[in-house]
Amino acid sequence: MSETKIRILIVDDHAVVRKGIRALLATEDDLEVIGEAVDGEQAVDLYGELNPDLLLLDLIMPKVNGIEVIKKIKGDHPKAKILVLTSFAADDQVFPAIKAGALGYLLKDTEPDDLINAIRQVYQGESSLSPTVARKVLEEVFHPAEKPLSPDPLTKREVEVLQVLAKGKSNRDIADELCISETTVRTHVSNILGKLHLASRTEAALYALKEGMAKLEDDS
User: Fold this and answer.
1) Per residue in 138-151, is it b (16+ CB within 10 Å) or e — as a string?
2) In the chain, what are the helix, strand and coil shares in percent, each to the nearest 5?
3) Would you say the pTM of this structure is higher than 0.85?
4) What is residue 150's predicted lDDT score, i.e. its pLDDT?
5) What kind and span of H or E run contains 7?
């Protein structure tokens, strides 16, 4: 069995919730809670001190709200893996959280096993959305874009990168599958987001689904 553990920082202002999550994660050999924050300000400070592998974050927080926490942490730590676990799925929370850089967004009525699986997915750089949130995001993506797409079309290689990205693969996995370097993958992903006027990998994956460039399941 691998000794590698996913080091997690829990951010929630309710002690009962924090203790419940800690107890749940303690049942898994590959998950380790390394700290707890009770407000947004402490979350930002502790993230810098502890450098966790994953931040499990409630959005409704004292002092600094969850959206601002995501922005601050992603600004200082661009590779931060953030999974939102909150009680609400309002548009003014879901979309800002995803655009700010959260890879996952779950509701607190999520089944324990689904939360554990989501933590592992986000740690691997994959997106994880609760069904309610996924529907909202898909509906948003299917609306006509406010900005026209770039007249510069995606190159053949960019299309290939987008198709693999849509499967939830990390840059390293994309590089391995396409036999290119991670640096090249990062360049392609940046170009894709720029050309399509998208803010995140999640939006790019959903765009690929909308355009029929990728499927929800791999038939291979």
Assistant:
1) eeebeeeeeeeeee
2) 50, 15, 35
3) no
4) 53
5) strand 6-11
Full domain range(s) for residue 107: 6-140
Residue 126 to residue 27: CA distance in whole angstroms: 23
Place of tokens 């499967």: 167
Where does a domain end: 140, 159, 183?
140
* pLDDT above 70 coverage of the chain, percent: 89
* Per-residue pLDDT tens digits for 121-144: 899 888 888 877 877 776 665 554
What number is the average pLDDT over the span 37-54? 95
What span, in angstroms and rounded, lies between the C-alpha atoms of 87 and 9? 18
Residue 124 to residue 133: CA distance in whole angstroms = 20
Is 107 inside any structural domain? Answer: yes
The answer to whether residues 54 and 81 touch, using CB atoms and an 8 Å cutoff, is: yes
Exposure of 76 by Cβ count < 10 A (0-12 exposed, 13-18 middle, 19+ buried)? Answer: exposed
CA 66/CA 68 separation, integer angstroms: 5
Q: Is 174 exposed, middle or buried (0-12, 13-18, 19+ CB in 10 A)?
A: buried
